[in-house]
């Protein structure tokens, strides 16, 4: 599975961004896809995940009510809509995919990763 993120950029606090992750390669219905973020010098944090089978979503408490994950099945694109952005949201954002093992926001569940897209909030 190959993943390519886009949509990052620089915004002011309170602004919005929508990230996209184009997936190629075969993913069965027991896959899960997710967004992680990483600040310099810190580990990756699971932000949101979506199960391909039935579309169940999982969102980190820190971004609930501000970040929304969705997927266009026909185009095989995963989205992360981010609103009311804060300086603390500044990070590199990564798209990930893996077989669903019931640990949606844990990094070690995922074995396919994109290169990341930078989000900067000032």
General description of the model:
The chain is an all-beta fold. Helices cover 0% and strands 51% of the residues. The chain is built from no helices and eleven strands. The chain has strands at 2-6, 9-11, 17-24, 31-38, 45-51, 57-59, 67-72, 77-82, 91-99, 112-113, 117-121. Strands 2, 4, 5, 6, 9, 10 and 11 form a seven-stranded mixed β-sheet that branches. It has a four-stranded antiparallel β-sheet with strand order 1-3-8-7, with no helix packed on it.
- Using only CA atoms, what is the Rg? 13 Å
Task: Write down how many β-strands occur, each being a DSSP E stretch of 2 or more residues.
Answer: 11
Helix-strand category: mainly beta
Termini, distance in Å? 34 Å
Low-confidence sequence ranges: none
What is the N-to-C succession of helices and strands? Answer: EEEEEEEEEEE
Main β sheet profile: 7 strands, mixed
Tell me the layout of helices and strands.
Elements: E1 2-6, E2 9-11, E3 17-24, E4 31-38, E5 45-51, E6 57-59, E7 67-72, E8 77-82, E9 91-99, E10 112-113, E11 117-121
Index terms:
122 residues; mainly beta; 7-stranded mixed beta sheet; 4-stranded antiparallel beta sheet; 11 strands
Give a short synopsis of this structure.
The chain is an all-beta fold and 122 residues long. Helix content is 0%, strand content 51%. It is globular.
């Amino acid at each position: 599975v190959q993943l390519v993120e886009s949509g990052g950029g620089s915004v002011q606090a309170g602004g919005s961004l929508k990230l996209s992750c184009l997936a190629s390669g075969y993913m069965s219905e027991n896959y899960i896809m997710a967004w992680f973020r990483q600040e310099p010098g810190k580990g990756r944090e699971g932000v949101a995940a979506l199960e391909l089978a039935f579309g169940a979503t999982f969102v980190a408490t820190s971004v609930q009510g501000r970040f929304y994950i969705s997927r266009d099945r026909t185009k095989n694109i995963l989205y992360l809509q981010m609103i009311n952005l804060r300086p603390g949201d500044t990070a590199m954002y990564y798209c990930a995919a893996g077989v669903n093992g019931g640990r949606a926001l844990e990094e070690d569940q995922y074995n396919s990763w994109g290169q990341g897209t930078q989000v900067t909030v000032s």
